[in-house]
Amino acid sequence: MKKLGVGIIGCGSISATYLKFGNIFKSLKVRAVADINMEAAEARASEFGVKALTVDEMLASDEIDVIVNLTIPEAHFELTRRIVLAGKHAYSEKPFVLSLEEGKSLRDLAQENGVCIGSAPDTFLGGSHQQARDLIDRGEIGRIIGGSCHVMSRGMEHWHPNPDFFFQPGAGPVLDLGPYYITNLVQLLGPVKAVAAMANASFATRRIANGPRNGEEIPVDTPTNIHALLEFENGAIVTLSSSWDVYQNSHPNMEFYGTDGTMQLPDPNFFGGSLAIAQQDGPFKTVPTTDHPFGVPNEEHGDGQMQANYRAAGLADMVEAIAEERKYRCNLDLALHVVDVMTSILKAGDTRAWVSMSTTCDRPEPISSEVARGLIG
User: What is the pTM (predicted TM-score) of this model?
Assistant: First the structure.
């Protein structure tokens, strides 16, 4: 298969991940990077041996077929719109966009221009999450009737030198971390029917605890403590607790309750991890891992432990799907539905009323070990 030329716009920290792992996939060839700050683009280009272009040069380049949008969330819509108008396929980091209206506009524009749009996260393609999909589909714990998800910490100001945007509209834990959890829930259980929520901001300001701005207080203008109920079309009801106001907690990241047992799942922010199942009244037992290539540890984490990181797997699947004229897994319908769920949670938290989804989607196709192995060059 011919490798499509890939360009990256946005040379922040996540760009290094795409540049490092993108080229392990046989359908991808990262050829250039761009940024509104040319010094950042040139530094990243020098580090990984690719071209540094201006944004306009990237959009006009005949060598670039697909552009990955790694800009800040509030810029996602406008840049993806420009990519589509330039006649190139687009793949966005999460969150895809910040409103349903923006997402629908991009969907229509992509159809008019004959290009494809995809969006992260692709961590649900990881070995452990695909193993969970297989076990659920085979009825290992019976019919799923409920579940709980917890993504809780004390926030970003303790490690990020410029955390301001995390606490402004368009961010917060639901829009920043929710895509990993909600996307995985949809691939495991199917689309969401309605949501309810309660939300607030426990602290009016945050104090930066590192870097040159250490000690500076910044305002909080978006909810940081959100607790939601998600009703799925299949009848399951799942609690989602997302908070940056919690020091410690002992909840599993994800847990499903079935008619025949319970399943604990690893953090969907990552590709790997282990599953545990308790059959009816029995104890939890760790499920042996499979040979899925997207579950094999390949990168050292900050704590010195090895983890599986296959960022760009969703992009690679999209590129091959374009050539094969099939639906790709990190598709626009899925991304749009996740945006619908997230923004509806925030709306429900504001109004204290149930909000029904105006979108739906199919569960993305599972990705087997064989298919995943075929994506790797």
Answer: 0.96
